[in-house]
Input
Amino acid sequence: MRVQVKKMSLVDVMIHRQGSFLVRAIHFIFGILISLFFRRIELYNSENIPKKSGLIFVSNHPNALIDPLLLFVALPRNIAFLAKSTLFKMPIVGFLIKAVGALPLYRQQDSGQDVSKNQETFTLTRELLKRGGAIAIFPEGVSHDSPKLLPLKTGAARIGLGAVSSGKNPASLDLKIVPVGLYYTNKTTFRSEALLHFGEPIDVSPVELDEDGQPSKHEVKELTAKIDEGLRKVTVNAETDDELEIARVAEEVFTSTTPYRENLAERLDILQKYLAEPQNVDDEKLQKRLAEYDKKLQKLGIESEFLTLADYSKKFILKHALLRSWYLFLLLPLVIIGTVLHFPAYQICALIASREIKKRHYDMASTVKALSGLVLMPLTWIIIAGILDYFYDWKIALLSIPFLFLCGWVALRVLEEINELRGWLKAITVFFLKREKFLRLLAERKTLFEKLKKEV
Output
């Protein structure tokens, strides 16, 4: 069954964004950064978001600072973040999160933090919610690389219950908690894809508060359990990394055999259904076959979707490859300029990110890469403009900045297309020169697909 998703449009989001000039400017800059970092951003079930209620968005947290940046840009409501207090002390990050109205959370695991200050933060948060505002919080408490949701902290539940239960007329506040599942096709890779999956809003009803103005532990635990259930419905949860990897192979087999592979929401749905199935002996055999199938693909250097080449004639394949690539030669001058001039900045970004990956800090790698790019790419333009100003004049220097941005953007898109075409070219080569192995893999994919149909 096909599902309907919305692709995030930076223009649409900017038109509807409200706030001060500074907030709009920051939103614009972050919007460009996120649009450059991700090739595609989709929103699924965004119609679930109430337009006027007080809202608490709760989300999983797999990707450090990229997660709040993505929510800040993509959510259709103005939001205030609850962020760990240590971020407010960082030179650039601190200024930015203060400018967009973020509120500090003081955590016990952060040394030297006075957790009693959280009471003031909660008071400010409740006042914001009572005005019909919206906040976003990551109830896991930390970003992580776990293949499943971590146990949730109780902050979101306590804030919600406190907001609707305090004041002269508690019942007058319409407050809902909206689970947001963040799904990345590859969270450490530049120009990957992202999905925001919105769950059903959870109603928050007034409760009796104690003498300190706090809800009971039982009611907090009960609402936190509802939040946990809501988040699990919109996220991928596997017991181990190996289990998740096999699930991804299964998803690729399934989607490469159907016309639905362009839809991230459906790909997520397949992963969830596969992982939700109870394991038995037959499933273990299927997992081994999926692993072997994946190894064969890697050995040939192709992906599952490339096996669809067998459905077409050799003439059609060559014609389609030519039609898809001819215009790239016309853009070659801009690509060369953009690639050469931005190469040093790109390499530095990649080097910094690779250090995080070596430390197995996968949740930080993309953040470091994005933030480095945000600084180093404009710095590249400024340096080149300065050189042009020194040797020529300021007019040429000024005009060079948009030209350099254009060259960088064209180079990015063309190299992205070339990389994809290179994958298809490799598959075409295997299709022509190792046809027997190619067709065997195709037959194996069909067999695996028939078995997977019963599960997903």
